Input
Amino acid sequence: MTDPLSKTNQLWEETIPGGAHWSFVMKRGTALRVTDVEGGANLSALFYNQEEKLERYNMADTLKAQHTAHLTTGFVLYSDMGRVLTSVIGDSCGWHDTISGMSNAALVEKRYGKADYQQARNAMHRNARDCMLIELSKWGLGKRDIVPNANFFSKVSADDTGAMHYAADHSKAGDFVELRFEMNVLVVLSATPHSLDPNPEYAPKPVLLQAWRCGTPDKQDQCRNFRPENVRGFYNTELLFR
Amino acid sequence: MSIVESKLNPQHASYELVLPAGESWLHEVKRGQVFRILDLEGNQAVDTLFYSAHDPEERYSAVDTIREQGNIYLTAGTKLISTEGNVLMTIVADTCGRHDTLGGACAAESNSVRYATDKKYMHSCRDSFLHALGHCDCGMDKRDLTANVNFFMNVPVTPQGELTFADGISAPGKYVEMRAEMDVFVLISNCPQLNNPCNAYNPTPVQLLIWDAAA
Output
């Protein structure tokens, strides 16, 4: 069993204001509960192996290994090296997007108009790609390290013709997702609006992060046994830590 | 799903190559040139990446491409969008109907997850990509590999959010053709996957053709 978040095992908590970016390292055996404080949040996220940052989240390998086009409890986020970076061990909103990418400067200016720091101070309009680039630069990374990302709290489905549909009002105040880290992982986050959010107002929402020591998954673990592919993915991952 | 045929005559192409399965190909396609991939024997996956020839940090973005057109499948009319929001290529003809860009490329490591731990010793698209980049003297390496196009692959997503691997919709002689909107490096792995029924476990050659811009 993985220990749930409690007062005794909590490591830290932090609120990322809407529009802000942050990066930090989560160690193997720790977990993060991310809470949509007000409802309507979007959290764009990238994940890297802290020891070898050339190993990173791989959307395609995540999707095809688990025959899915979305993320929720049971699914894991694979690196390009056949290892599990992080596992979704809890989720109250049922669907997180990983096929729509992140917002960029041109898209944000087109949708919301221009609001720079001189005018708007820290309420300036920020976009996920630039937020990611700033954080990545702090770790010696850059444009070549930006790959298709996850967007927590956002739902984008595709119909039978392939047309993409953004679900408005998907995440409610208090909705959360819990990620257990299976490696030492560099987490890079941008709390900026989803690239398909039709809201004409630039209204980024805060997210609460709560980290705790959860321990490593046992043989009966839900994510490990979610699919036969994941049994092999966890085997590959655990070889690193024997 | 729209079928658009090309008026170009293969006899007038300035470049022609038959690329066997399991081989890679890295080639510059100049702005205005038209590039065709022809599925010679049917249902062959052609894993393809695109880079700005002048600044390879600007490269194909699968997620920006599908978001900008509002559809997850690539077909005639699709603009292949770069990480900087520019158009690398426009698909101008397509007799297959739709192509995948969510399934990615096979790799030793993903094969070990998807099929069996010992499958990691089989040849894979990523090994082909790395082989081509290792020899290219262009400064690119594994860091430059990102989500690719799988021409001729049928990977439907259901409204419930499942990714499925359906029977192919390509056939011998089907092709996809794209016009370069800037000078572009095209990196191809003609997929050697032997574990997947969508190519009937039989990887086959494809033909690559380039026409110069109309004078």
Summary: Residues 102 and 128 of chain A are 6 Å apart (CA to CA). The two ends of chain A are 20 Å apart (CA to CA).
